[in-house]
Structure formats: C-alpha cells, structure tokens
C-alpha cells in the first residue's frame, strides 16, 4: 500500500499570470474568481485536492505588486505567508515576463530550500522559438527550479505538473478532513462571486474601491437566502454601482445568483444593498473586519 502524502503547494506570481485558473483546474471547482483585471485575488485562498493516498493543499495568493495603500500592503502579507508553510513553491510566469515585480520576493525564490516549480504559462499564445528563449532565460535566472511550460486555460500539461507535485510532497497524514474542499466559509464565496461581477462590469477605480460583506446566509432544505452589502468609498461610486433605476446592481445580482446556484447546487435568493464606507482601503480596523489584517 502506498504511503500517504500531504503538503502545502503555494502558487505565487505577478498579477494576471493565470494563478487562479491553474488553482481551479487543479481543484476541479471554481474557488478563485477570475477576471482580466489585476488584483482580482485579494486573499490567500486554499483549495484542497484529496485522493486515497494524498492531500494537496493549494494556496492561491494575490499577484505580487508594489503596495500603494494599506489594503495592498495587507494583500502582500498573504504572499509573504505563502513562503512560510510551503512544501512546494509554484512560481508562475507568462511568456514575455522577465522578472518579478518585487526583488525581495525573487531573492526568496532564488534561495528557496524547498522544491520550486516554475510554470511558464500561456504557451498556447506563443511560437516555439520564443518559448525556447524564455525557458533559457528562466533557467539562467533560477537554475535550481524545474521549468514546466503549461497552458492553464487550455489544461495543457496541468495533469503532468500535478503528478510532479505529488512526487515532491512529503509523507504525512491529511491536514484537513478528506471531504473538505477549501478553508473558506460559504459567505466568502458569496462575497467573491459578487466582487467578480463588479470587476467584470464596472470600469476604472470602481472595482478596486469595492468590498463585499454578506450579513445573512440562511440555508433551508430547498433554498439559500442571502443578504449582502457592497461597500464603496464615495457617494458618487454608490450611484454608479446602483445604476439607472437600479439596473446595474440588478445585473450583478442576477449573474451572481446564477453562479452561486451552480456552486451550492441549490436555489438562491439574494438581496443586495450599497453603502458608503469612506476610505476603508486605508483603515486598518476596517481591513481587519474584512479579513485582511490579523
């Protein structure tokens, strides 16, 4: 009988490299929201993949940026924590990237004592010659890392990378119950689904000034009743979120409800409200309330 392998696999990289797409491909569920905008992921999200003789705990972290305000500093704290408990570090880059946005993080990867898998993503958009140049570039920068070309979106080479991760994990009992998919509560996924719709449908600063808080989550046998509040920083943003006669807010609610019904496999009723919470992104007590500061 095979011995049981368990461990933490932490995924890091610049914004928009496809970390969330890879995480969801590994887990087989949509745990991390995905949009084309930078800073889509704000928290560190665990996705747990279980087999008879393994448990892989995947960690999707915010894209690495230079913080401009307190919220972004808190987001980078989640990335720092990813170095502390990893058994395998997955560093994702895409074709054309030359370096990480933060040199200190890059030094940590360079000096890592644990296995590092460098995944060169979006190879479906590249020509062979450029791909070979990129592999050579990263081999010189990180000679100790294993380099794997992948396409997370097209699922190319994803299974092979997952199998390699299993080989690298230590022998250990499972850390979480075998039927657990993530470390986050239901309300977190309601908040993230709503935030994803806001990222998709609103422009400029609006999505970055938004936080979502679910005040009520009542699950009955045949329906889940949800009441969520969308926080913005200014009155003008509140008007934009609501839209003409409430049309913009209604679209967010309808699209989120469809996704949540798939996620929970149950009928969902959702009520949305918009409130102004001035300057919450630079307010440490507000950030703590939203789960950013310990």
TrEMBL record:
Residues 121-124 are annotated as: G4. Residues 39-43 are annotated as: G2. Residues 60-63 are annotated as: G3. Belongs to the TRAFAC class TrmE-Era-EngA-EngB-Septin-like GTPase superfamily. Era GTPase family. The gene is era. Monomer. Transmembrane segments: none annotated. It is a peripheral membrane protein. It comes from Flagellimonas algicola. Keywords: Cell membrane, Cytoplasm, GTP-binding, Membrane, Nucleotide-binding, Ribosome biogenesis, RNA-binding, rRNA-binding. Residues 5-171 form the Era-type G domain. It comes from the Bacteria. Residues 150-152 are annotated as: G5. This is GTPase Era. Its main location: cytoplasm. Gene3D superfamilies: 3.30.300.20, P-loop containing nucleotide triphosphate hydrolases. GTP binds at residues 13-20, 60-64, 121-124. It is found in: Cytoplasm; Cell membrane. Residues 13-20 are annotated as: G1.
């Amino acid at each position: 009988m095979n011995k049981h392998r368990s461990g933490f696999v932490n995924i890091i990289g610049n914004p928009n490299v496809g970390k969330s797409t890879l995480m969801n491909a590994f887990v087989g569920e949509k745990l991390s929201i995905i949009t084309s905008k930078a800073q889509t992921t704000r928290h560190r999200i665990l996705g747990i993949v279980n087999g008879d003789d393994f448990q892989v705990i995947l960690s999707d972290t915010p894209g690495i940026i230079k913080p401009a305000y307190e919220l972004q500093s808190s987001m980078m704290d989640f990335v720092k924590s990813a170095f502390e408990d990893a058994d395998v570090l997955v560093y994702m880059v895409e074709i054309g990237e030359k370096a990480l946005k933060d040199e200190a993080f890059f030094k940590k990867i360079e000096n890592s004592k644990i296995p590092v898998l460098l995944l060169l993503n979006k190879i479906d958009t590249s020509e062979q010659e450029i791909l070979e140049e990129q592999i050579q570039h990263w081999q010189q920068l990180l000679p100790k890392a294993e380099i794997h070309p992948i396409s997370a979106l097209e699922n190319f080479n994803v299974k092979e990378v997952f199998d390699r991760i299993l080989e690298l994990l230590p022998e250990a009992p499972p850390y979480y119950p075998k039927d657990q998919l993530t470390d986050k509560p239901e309300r977190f996924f309601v908040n993230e689904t709503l935030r994803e719709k806001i990222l998709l449908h609103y422009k400029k600063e609006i999505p970055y000034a938004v936080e979502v808080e679910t005040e009520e989550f009542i699950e009955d046998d045949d329906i889940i009743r949800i009441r969520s509040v969308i926080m913005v920083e200014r009155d003008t943003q509140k008007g934009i979120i609501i839209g003409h006669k409430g049309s913009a807010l209604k679209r967010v609610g309808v699209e989120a409800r469809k996704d949540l019904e798939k996620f929970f496999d149950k009928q969902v009723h959702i009520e949305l409200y918009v409130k102004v919470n001035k300057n919450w992104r630079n307010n440490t007590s507000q950030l703590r309330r939203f789960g950013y500061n310990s």
